[in-house]
Amino acid sequence: MSLVSIIMPAYNAEKTIKKSIVSIQNQTYGCWELLVTDDNSTDATRSIVLELAKSDERIKYFPNKGKSGAWSARNNSIKVAEGEYIAFLDSDDTWLPQKLTMQISEMKTKNVNASHSTYYRVLDTGKVIGIKKASQLVTLNDMLKKNCIGNLTGIYNAKILGKFYQQEVGHEDYAMWLEVLKSTDSVGIELPMANYLVTTNSLSSNKFKAALWHFNLLRSHKKVGAFSIWYYFCCYIVSSIKSRV
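-> structure tokens emitted (245 positions)
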């Protein structure tokens, strides 16, 4: 069974991180390491993670040694990741038990080096307020039109593709997956495999800012010409209007 390195940034996550970690421990796929990088939390995040690590050696805690930010904390964990596969889960989101088993199996069956899935959008009460459905296959061209991969569902084969790091560009996970998809397509699981916690200050709650970041990313992409920038940006706007969840 191949090792999966799970990348988790954390900042003042004492209210949610235990639930996130327990959802990983409940996976039917047991060969994983959880790399939690704490981005200078001032609450009980550190003690909660270390307490859970006492009874589960697969859980590993690190202080963030780089610049502050979720992207930097993720990079800190990616640097020390030893797994064949790299997956992502933030400290306020959760996975369903079959996630790793189903996605890795699908990657091997389809001979593809990345995977993603459908996921629920939920409130802190647990109420489901929406669902983001996964496409059966996502290519680089698809990803340029809109963000087709929820970072909490994404997995890629680092043994074959190498490691991908995030940059401080505002839409860090999206930019990273664009780089991943230059080397492979991503196969999608249509069943929901994760829960994304919707908060008032989340990126998805600010559509204008997200659109601006998307446009700037397209402008910086070496393979996107001037005409194509506007084509892909219009596709993004149309997709955002249609979703509205």
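The chain has a mean pLDDT of 88.
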